[in-house]
Amino acid sequence: MPPQPAYILHSRPFRDTSLILELLTPDYGRIACIAKGARRDKQRRQRALQPFAPLLVTLLGRHDLKTLGPVESAGQPLWLKGRAVYAGLYANELLVRLLPEGESHPLVFSAYQRLLTQLARLTGEERGEQGAVLEWPLRCFELHLLQALGSCPELDFSPLDNGPIRAESIYRLTMEEGFAPVHLPAGAVPRGNDFSGAHLLILSAWLFAGDENGVEEGAGTLEHRAEVLVAAKRLCRLILDPLLGSRPLKSRELFRQVYGAS
């Protein structure tokens, strides 16, 4: 294999001195390899094999489990702080759990790079209204990942209507048919798997915008932005939970232990 840009998603001990690494690369997606002697050479080799650090790696061997060859730094490590660390660990765990091994996903790689860059700008202590600057990039990454997996329905189109989502309408998510129009009682707030058409259109624009700034401009007031974030989190959970199954996410549990939040 030619040298590949890569990030380390997960590592675990292997035998006495080595590590098994789960890498994210643009050409091979998620791929596992053995880093021989990495636990023995702590001063040099292991220090270079840290999460959130852009690497250029060479993978050797013909078997499914490759051997890690030469490793070079491909840029400054992105130091995440506070809550942003847990957001990064959560993204890593999603990729390990959901991304098929060996499949090329350059758009997922780009979305992950963008997420880390955005998280690295944060103090890690954002909460309340300020917490939106952490939520925006995380929800955007989730949507891009689900789209790449073919699990995210079209956010701006209703198959049953055979037409575009209308901002003034309410839609119910079904995994088989996407978003179908429904009628709620006057004054009822969309909950569960019901979503405002206006929110869906903002989230659709979000996917194409590539960052949170373009979406914030279209989301209107702070109150409206908060509503869109709540809808985005609800949508992502509805789609992710069946994919993840009953085994809980370790990063989510760790975040709850530290910050007492879901």
From TrEMBL:
Q: Which UniProt keywords apply?
A: DNA damage, DNA recombination, DNA repair
Name recorded for this polypeptide: DNA repair protein RecO
- Record-stated family: Belongs to the RecO family.
Output the PANTHER family linked to this UniProt entry: DNA REPAIR PROTEIN RECO
Which residues does the UniProt record annotate as the domain DNA replication/recombination mediator RecO N-terminal?
Answer: 4-72
* Record InterPro entries: ARFGAP/RecO (IPR037278), DNA_rep/recomb_RecO_N (IPR022572), NA-bd_OB-fold (IPR012340), RecO (IPR003717), RecO_C (IPR042242)
Q: Which organism is it from?
A: Microbulbifer harenosus
This protein's source sits in the domain of life called Bacteria
Function comment: Involved in DNA repair and RecF pathway recombination.
Q: Does the keyword DNA damage apply?
A: yes
